[in-house]
Design a protein that fits this description.
With 256 residues, the protein is mostly helical. It is built from 7 helices and no strands. The protein has helices at 11-30, 32-59, 67-72, 79-114, 122-159, 170-175, 199-240. The longest helix has 42 residues, at 199-240.
């Protein structure tokens, strides 16, 4: 056991020093602290997607602006559309809960895969090994959300009314993080609604959202390749930079 305090030996200080300080510094040196922080944040985010999705699914049901009061318990809709909204509420709620679970499951699995990534140094771990995987993970999450919106839009078209879709606003929010990806934002409907008078038009919106989900997933794989290419260019540029050094020469004169 290493001694902690100078001149004296205090058992409590020595034990704390050897059990807490030295192991922590060792984890800093081998990178486990930084790696564990990133893994912890992703784990918390995965749980947040699950609990947040469940919360939003319940929160949007009731209240003055809730789905029940807006489309079912008032006279805003006719009898047929109100019956369709009831079906849309049941299916939309179930699919929203299922979507929250799917988002959690994807991020949880990807986080577990990141745990086995070998840590060499911080910049490499973050920019070379972690960020490309995060780009793909966000693409996979957006794929699920676009698929969710498209399926609910098709259901809304079939029932000819509103469908409960509390998670439909989030694809646009996630897309805004990535420059250039805003072009896909119009493919996911935010207000899920159907009408038999425009059956073909509303069905086309749902099909386009589902097709957009696959196109978006491909786009994020391309986005990852572009990121890796730019990263390689930057790395090569840095390697070509001249290395500056101040030569020091110590000359010794020997007298005969």
């Amino acid at each position: 056991m290493e001694k902690n305090l100078p001149f004296v030996s205090l058992s409590v200080a020595d034990k704390g020093y050897n059990k807490l300080v030295i192991p922590f510094l060792g984890k800093l040196d081998d990178g486990n602290v930084f790696k564990n922080i990133i893994i912890l944040l992703l784990t918390v985010l995965a749980i947040g997607l699950l609990l947040g999705g469940i919360y939003l699914s319940f929160d949007g049901l009731f209240g003055d602006s809730g789905f029940v009061k807006s489309y079912i318990s008032n006279d805003y809709l006719s009898g047929g559309k109100k019956a369709g909204a009831v079906v849309g509420l049941i299916l939309g709620f179930a699919i929203s809960i299922l979507t929250a679970w799917a988002l959690f499951s994807v991020l949880k699995k990807r986080t577990e895969q990141m745990k086995v990534i070998e840590y060499d140094y911080l910049l490499s771990f973050i920019f070379v090994k972690t960020l490309p995987k995060l780009i793909l993970v966000i693409g996979e999450l957006l794929f699920i959300l676009f698929l969710y919106a498209g399926i609910l839009q098709i259901i809304a078209t079939l029932v000819g009314s509103f469908v409960y879709a509390p998670l439909s606003e989030y694809p646009t929010l996630l897309l805004s993080i990535f420059p250039g990806m805003e072009v896909f934002s119009g493919l996911a409907p935010q207000q899920i609604f159907g009408d038999y008078e425009n059956f073909g038009e509303y069905m086309k919106i749902g099909v386009m959202s589902i097709a957009g989900a696959f196109l978006l997933l491909i786009a994020f794989y391309i986005y990852k390749e572009i990121y890796n290419y730019i990263l390689k260019l930057v790395t090569n540029l840095i390697s070509f930079l001249p290395k500056f050094a101040i030569p020091l020469a110590i000359r010794k004169r020997e007298e005969n």
